[in-house]
């Protein structure tokens, strides 16, 4: 596959916005330490190397000291990095050569670097670019894999991949691009299970677009996210966004749109979903909301290393942020932008302000939706004042009848969810508040956030705020 210069520019632009300052993650203070750390990093994580090198550098602060070291002493220190027997021999041989032929300093020419024991072309390029600031394209396992998946090279030979990449990209960008590709490989374009559904390069990637099999695994990459939604209104929103085929689990309360959800397995309630059922769905993402779901399930999922997205929906700003988070995580930016634009439109223009509103969500005891609740957020987005906050709670405060009467609301709303308020309650409250406008409101419209927020705002505005 040939990549156009537009493709290449777009790939670099996206990598640039994702990882503007990607750098070498191996701790080092000079070229000698970087050389040692890079040799140790073969088949080992940077974090483990960084745990090992402080002691090693204290024991052998320069090539001369290292050249005089005993193999057994080094083995003891670097054992956690794996292949420690070979690496110990390489380190000492490398140091001896540096002392003997390069006056104790790491050489600055590629021809000399690749002669050092344990230093191949990749390591030499890392040293050149990171320690000496010379543009170089080091091709490690991540860079090679990404180059092939992105259609930037067809070769399995690192030297050829290096050549291909160097021909495609401007020399001045090689070093940064190398670190960006490594970072993306670690975070998203993983070896066995690339996270294509949430990858920002997907639109530019023939593997992610399933135009070709994954050159790394030989299989087609998974085409879609597997989402378990523990939030009924987000389940509805995802269906509205055309993502029902990505849903692999829902709660017992995720009931809309019923025709779409019939075949989606249930995993339990919103407060007590069964972890076993969630795991059985093999999700790539579980969606939660801070007040709807418990911290316990969020922690259990994290312990199982299941990716989660936790939303917070108490006010206008958090609704926008939630749409943005969902749009970006699910690669649904156009739909997210449309939802945000509808939301903004629903509060635009002149309207009656300072309406004092009491929203009751429960009876015996009376519980109000306070200023820090979703319903409270609806009223405030339209410029109204939410009544009922107490010193103890601004979320869902409990109030006795005397406290209620003192509030003197202009408007009382009785959503039919979660408490089934009906005409009997309406009349009771009309007697208690003869000067207030008391109304029953469709509970789902009042409480199903994000999927019905714009409709709820339009309804409230039309009936009470215009
Ligand atoms: S779309 Fe998939 S294969 Fe392509 S770069 Fe992203 S994660 Fe890798």
Q: Would you mind describing this structure in some detail?
A:
With 466 residues, the protein is α/β, with parallel strands linked by helices. It is built from 22 helices and ten strands. It has helices at 5-18, 31-40, 46-59, 63-67, 71-78, 84-101, 110-113, 121-132, 141-149, 158-168, 174-187, 232-240, 258-261, 275-280, 295-303, 316-329, 333-347, 374-381, 401-406, 423-432, 443-447, 453-465, and strands at residues 227-229, 247-250, 285-289, 308-311, 356-362, 366-368, 385-386, 398-399, 411-415, 437-441. The strands form two sheets. Strands 5, 6, 7, 8, 9 and 10 form a six-stranded mixed beta sheet that branches. It has a four-stranded parallel beta sheet with strand order 2-1-3-4, with helices on both faces. The radius of gyration is 30 Å and the shape is elongated. Bound molecules: iron/sulfur cluster.
């Amino acid at each position: 596959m040939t990549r156009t210069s537009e493709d290449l520019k777009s790939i670099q632009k996206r990598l640039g916005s994702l990882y503007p300052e990607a750098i070498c993650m191996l701790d080092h203070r000079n070229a000698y330490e970087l050389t040692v750390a890079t040799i140790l990093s073969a088949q080992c994580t940077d974090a483990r190397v960084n745990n090992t090198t402080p002691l090693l550098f204290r024991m052998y602060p320069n090539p001369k000291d290292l050249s005089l070291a005993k193999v057994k002493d080094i083995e003891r220190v670097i054992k956690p990095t794996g292949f420690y027997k070979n690496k110990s021999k390489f380190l000492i041989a490398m140091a001896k050569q540096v002392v003997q032929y390069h006056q104790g300093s790491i050489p600055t020419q590629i021809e000399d670097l690749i002669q050092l024991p344990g230093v191949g072309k990749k390591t030499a390029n890392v040293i050149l670019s990171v320690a000496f600031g010379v543009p170089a394209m080091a091709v490690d396992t991540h860079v090679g894999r990404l180059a092939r998946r992105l259609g930037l090279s067809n070769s399995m030979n690192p030297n050829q991949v290096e050549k291909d990449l160097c021909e495609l990209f401007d020399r001045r960008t090689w070093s940064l691009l190398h670190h960006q590709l490594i970072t993306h490989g670690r975070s998203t374009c993983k070896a066995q299970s690339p996270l294509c559904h949430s990858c920002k390069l997907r639109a530019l990637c023939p593997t992610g677009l399933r135009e070709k099999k994954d050159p790394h695994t030989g299989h087609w990459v998974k085409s879609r996210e597997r989402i378990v939604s523990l939030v009924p209104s987000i389940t509805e929103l995802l269906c509205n966004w055309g993502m029902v085929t990505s849903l692999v689990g829902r709660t017992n309360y995720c009931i809309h749109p019923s025709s779409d959800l019939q075949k989606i397995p249930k995993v339990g309630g919103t407060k007590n979903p069964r972890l076993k059922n969630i795991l059985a769905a093999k999700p790539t993402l579980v969606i939660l909301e801070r007040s709807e779901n418990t911290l316990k399930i969020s922690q259990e999922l994290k312990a199982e290393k299941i990716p989660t997205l936790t939303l917070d929906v108490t006010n206008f700003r958090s609704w926008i942020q939630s749409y943005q988070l969902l749009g970006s995580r699910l690669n649904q930016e156009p739909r997210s932008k449309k939802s945000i634009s509808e939301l903004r439109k629903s509060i635009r223009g002149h309207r009656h302000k300072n309406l004092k509103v009491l929203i009751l969500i429960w009876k015996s005891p009376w519980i109000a939706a306070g200023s820090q609740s979703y319903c409270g957020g609806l009223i405030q987005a339209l410029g109204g004042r939410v009544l009922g906050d107490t010193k103890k709670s601004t979320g869902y405060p409990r109030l006795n009848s005397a406290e209620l009467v003192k509030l003197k609301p202009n408007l009382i709303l009785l959503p039919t969810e979660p408490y089934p308020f009906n005409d009997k309650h309406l009349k009771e409250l009309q007697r208690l508040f003869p000067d207030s406008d008391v109304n029953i409101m469709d509970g789902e419209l009042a409480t199903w956030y994000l999927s019905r927020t714009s409709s709820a705002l339009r309804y409230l505005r039309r009936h009470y705020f215009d």
